[in-house]
Amino acid sequence: MTRARHTDVRETIGDDHPTCRLRDVLDRVGDKWSVLVMDLLGDGPKRYSELQRSIAGISQRMLTLTLRSLERDGLVERTVTPTSPPRVDYALTPVGRTLSSQVSGLIVWARQHRDYVAASRARYDAS
Amino acid sequence: MTRARHTDVRETIGDDHPTCRLRDVLDRVGDKWSVLVMDLLGDGPKRYSELQRSIAGISQRMLTLTLRSLERDGLVERTVTPTSPPRVDYALTPVGRTLSSQVSGLIVWARQHRDYVAASRARYDAS
DNA sequence: CGGTATCCGACCGGATACTG
DNA sequence: CAGTATCCGGTCGGATACCG
């Protein structure tokens, strides 16, 4: 939202001119909390409190904001069971699952190459 | 298998050791400029000024910082030709290419689903 | 339980100026 | 051409408090 601040993006990157859209989606992937949430939800629906426990370090504020934007993008579905106290479940939508599998590929990459990256950094910083 | 395809994101994130390295790598993907630069370099080596021209909207500062961190991570190689004026070329390393291909998967996803995402947002914002 | 509202410090990144 | 240095406004996100 209001990413328009960042000037007019008429660029040669990608084939399609509105790179803003492309960037919007990539920003979603770029968000570290979104990635972690989508990865967890790839395992199946989870309650709010489950997510909060699983992602130690995330603040209530950020968990809510993350879930809201994922829901807004149609990647996550929110289900409220009006018991008392209320129960809220989050699950990936079908489209959300397709993104989740892409993200999963990235995570696999990250795990496979983290030693390489760490070594590269050490070497770079040494010189 | 219910959770085999997932990473150990369940580890705490509060303590910085185990997961933060994973996150460091994902942050690289998360950076919007890094993604664009890697995508461009996927086509072959490029000069500094070519990148700057292709990615309209990027500041000189950010292009330099982005390239430096990609180089530090061993994903991009910097080659200086000491002519006058100097010429600097950037190219993906072999490992950089493997990440680049993951990234292109994401970009393909983004193109395929950008209408869906846009529609979801419109519907969400309307309610 | 599952949020919302508000404050505020940290950091990110654009603009600008200068250099080998 | 390919950077580095500095300033600084804006945003992100943690902490805290409160609510249905």
Automatic annotation (TrEMBL), chains A, B:
GO terms for molecular function: DNA binding. Keywords: DNA-binding, Transcription, Transcription regulation. InterPro entries: HTH_HxlR, WH-like_DNA-bd_sf, WH_DNA-bd_sf. Pfam families: HxlR. Gene3D superfamilies: Winged helix-like DNA-binding domain superfamily/Winged helix DNA-binding domain. The keyword Nucleotide-binding does not apply. Residues 20-118 form the HTH hxlR-type domain. It comes from the Bacteria. This is DNA-binding HxlR family transcriptional regulator.
